[in-house]
Amino acid sequence: GGEADGKNAKLFYDQARKIHEQGNMAGAAELYRKSLSFDPDFAPSLNNLAVIDMEEGRYAKAREGFQKALRASPGYADPYYNLACVSAREGHPEKAVPYLKEAFARDPEARRSARSDPDLAPVRALPAFSELMKER
Is the pTM value of this prediction over 0.90? Predict the structure, then answer.
C-alpha cells in the first residue's frame, strides 16, 4: 500500500492514456487494469476503462465502471459527464441532464465539451439542456 502504489497507479494510467489516444483500446485497457492492480480505487483508470466499454458498446458495463469511479472519487467530474454520454447513447437523453449538472458543478470547463460532443447531440435538443447551459 501507500505512496509507491499511488505512484505506480498514476504511472500506468499515464502510459494507458497515451495509447488510448492513439486508438489502441486493448493495450490501453490492459494498462488501466495494471494501474488498478496497484490502487483499485484510482478513479481516472476506473473512468477510462469504462470509457473503453462505452466506446465498444458495452453500456451496462460502462455505467457500472463510471459508478465505481464516482464512489472512489466523488469530486471527480468525468464519470458524471460520461454517465450523461452513456444515457444519450442508450436513447435516454433526458437522463443525461442531471449527470451533466453534477459534472458542471465539479468542473465548469465540462460545459465547453458538452457544447460540441457528438454523444450529447440528442441532449442538446432538450430545453433542459439550454437551461443548464445558462446556469452559472
Answer: yes
